[in-house]
Amino acid sequence: MEWSWKVRMTLLTAVLAMSVTSASTERVSEAEAIRLFLEQSPQAKQGSLIVRSVDAQFRVEARVAGPEVAYQVEDAAGVRDEFLTAQQALPITGLRALLGERASLASASAGRLAQADLQADAYDLKQTFHEVLYRESVRERFQRGAVLLERTVEILAARELEGAGSGYDVLRAEQELAELRMTAAEGQAALAAARSRFGSFFDPTLRMDSAHLVGDPAVSGPTPEINRAVDLALAQRLDLRSLSSEQERLDLERRAARRRRFPEPILTAGWKRTAAVGLSESGYVAGLSVALPIFGRARIEASRAGAEGERVELEKEMLARRIRAEVQAAVAREQVARRNVQVYGENIERRAVELHRVARLKYDEGESGILELLDAHRTSLAMELRALAVRYEAKSSEIDRNRAIGNEVQP
Hints:
By secondary structure, this protein is α+β, with helices and mostly antiparallel strands. Helix content is about 70%, strand content about 10%.
């Protein structure tokens, strides 16, 4: 049996709805999603491991070497000498303190980079969260538009049976409905992709890709002035602060290399016993030795650390320039997006409803044809979708501006 277009469209709607709304009914807010991510994600856990690893790597060199114990026996010409000695380097040059500070700065730099990566992922999560909300709103608009078109088709089909309508009007409305369904299917695919990306931030067992997300798509707070935003970014961007810590670490390395030019003395102390012709005597052994830095590499290491420090300084300057450009572009984009919301976003939906009402009235009174009615339906739907896009653009630009400034993402 061949199914009617109504049955086919109903089945298609049900399949598309089930593919997206078969989700869990759990309600998840933006704050809850961010909290779960910051507490349970692998990205959040790896930061402390990176800090511990880098700190341990640099702390090894900063530790004072333990004493060395040696036992020697000399036996010649009937004389037997035994030595039991211990050697210990005396850390009197202050080198270890510099190396300890270097380890702290190295771990701080690595920690800030890890935190910057975590914050970047958190901002991606926020963007994806609001993209899901936006695409769900788009789906709802398409569903409402499809319902209006279905009613129009039913009315036109009834009029045709009564002889008061045209078969062309029915076919044209059915074609418009089919095109709307295809566009809605593309929107469903985009929504499914956004939900999949959102779920990838969490453990699969949480089924966050099917959670019911709730949130406010409106922007929060005023847009900062551009110069103020740039100053904030230069003060708090973690990647720039990480380079500052790296520069301080290299300065300490340069100072430590210079400190290595002064060798640390080695103290030797122990016990000696001598046995000859049946007699045996014992006493102590003491000594102090200093290595001569004739072939030392301190000058080369200091030169390397100095060159690395200059390179990091140039990287800081280049990054600061990029940050200024990013912040200026982000603030400008947000200002335009917010202005569009104020000018268009609040009135578009109201005008869309009014346009569809007037067009339907004129068609019913015979003042316009089916093409004008369908054009009004298409235009009103496009206006509603544009209103959603304008609000989403404003929210997205706000998130990008906070990202550029380096504001911390918190639940």
